[in-house]
């Protein structure tokens, strides 16, 4: 059998990630590969670090991309900061909080779980109670933008609480970064990880991270070695750290880093605040359209993420069949529900380059057609009209 080149179909990506990647970013990725210690490449690495400081709104010197997806950013934070026996408060209100707990336990830490219902944000009162009950807590970990439910949790109060009780804060900002404000220095956050394939609209496979001096101090004072050789920050810093001498640690994903550089240049050109405003406005346009169609959100308006819209599936609609049709006929990908929300919601992503009027109008007209074919009563054209009023 002869296998020929793989030519992916053109899709419109409106799920929980990856998001649509701009042609400029794809073109950057196709530029010639250079050595990972080439002086020209090292200059570009320094630019990536300072562009990431801008995206994270931080002066933290230790701000760089881990050479692996968001999950590895998560793992690098836990593997470096948690020592065996450390108590870690883990806030769980969806899938990614559950994964945090798993990370803590695999690092030999003791997870103190603070649970909130799926679809609700993290309750700071419960976190404070847990801190009072466990004064020896070392870390408070939570997810700012819970992609499994579309819920936002404000990190300011949780980071300040952690600091006040002598603990470090560890924040999952994978879906948050560039979609809603991520203000690492204003919050005093200690360890934050993100992803490239959500609101940065870069290719999947890299995870920007940033660590405060307090976090670095804990890592330097560890009495045991970090159990992961690949993710040990003490070693990675020989390659990504300050100064002109860079030592080989692993071969950086050179072309993927060109892509990240380009997507961050595009973020800087747009302006971080303008990016937040665009996500907010696109969300309002989508919301107006969905509501005109009679659809409802699964999350209270107060906690809704603009970039991840959790929408209730109307009774009697075959979830998988509808999403399959959307993909096959219209090239449109929307996300399924996870865990407690499987079969109950759709997750419509408006992340990065996917947060455009064009995508919203395609999504609304696709849903309108497919829902009416599934015998849901929808008035033809109403959703697109309602969205246009907000979008233009
Ligand atoms: C997507 C996501 C991750 C994992 O990122 P990958 O790139 O898929 O490994 C972690 N946390 C949250 C909140 C996410 O949305």
TrEMBL record:
This is Serine--pyruvate aminotransferase. Residues 73-337 form the Aminotransferase class V domain. SUPFAM superfamilies: PLP-dependent transferases (SSF53383). Keywords: Aminotransferase, Pyridoxal phosphate, Transferase. Belongs to the class-V pyridoxal-phosphate-dependent aminotransferase family. It comes from the Bacteria. It comes from Terasakiella brassicae. GO terms for biological process: glycine biosynthetic process, by transamination of glyoxylate.
